[in-house]
Amino acid sequence: MEERLALHRLWLDRAPGGLRAEFRGATLSDLKLDGVDLRQADLHGASFLESSLPGANLAGADLSGADLRKVNLMDADLSGADLTDAQLQFALLSEANLSEATMVNTRFDNSTLRDCRMFEAQMSGCNFSGANLTGASLSQSSMLDCNFAGVDLSNAKFLHARMERCRFHKAQGDAIDFSSVSAQDTDFSGVRFESAKFYRASLLRGNFIRASLIGSNFSESNFSFAEFYMATLADSRFGGANLNAADLTSADLTGARELTSKQLASARTGSRTILPNRQPGPYIKGSGAERSR
Length: 293
Prior knowledge:
little secondary structure; two-stranded parallel ribbon; 7 strands; 6% helix
């Protein structure tokens, strides 16, 4: 192993005699490789099960199909790596850098990704269910059909992220920032997000059934045709939000701020709606019920 790593270092430096590290399909389980430099290495299908690689440099490496379950990758650099079909269940990735990585059908179930960085990452079909993403930064990333069910997202940032058909069912966390996100047809049902920011977010046809979003900021966001059945939106801000055809027929808007008569009239309200002034719906234009007490 040491000899191959030394040859790889020479290859990275473009020195004579250098040879790219190639461990395709190799079994490298239960190894201690702290701080190892495997930039641009060929690790396709390799098994690192329960190995320790904190601080490792895997930038640009081919980790497609790799088995990284229960691996310690804390503070590792995986920027630009190919993690297609890789398995990282129960892995430790706190403060790791996955920016610009390619992740297709990648498994992160129950992994720890606290304070990790995923700027401009490309994700499709990834599973983060049960993972810890507190403080993680996924800004400007692209996510298609990704599963974040049951994830802890406290203080996570998704600024300018692009999502489509992603699932956040029963995810939780405080002070999550979804500002300027594009998240059409995304499932936020049953989430418990307090003081979340959805400023200027596009949430067309979003599913917020039974979601709790107390004290959140929805200013200038687009909720056209969104579903808020039994959702709690108390004390939230709606200045300039587009609520065209949004289903608020059983939503709790107690104490909601910055709502106008025009906004509420464009949404669907009913007898089970609790309006900002704590009165039951439906909203009647000119009633003043859009103003909280």
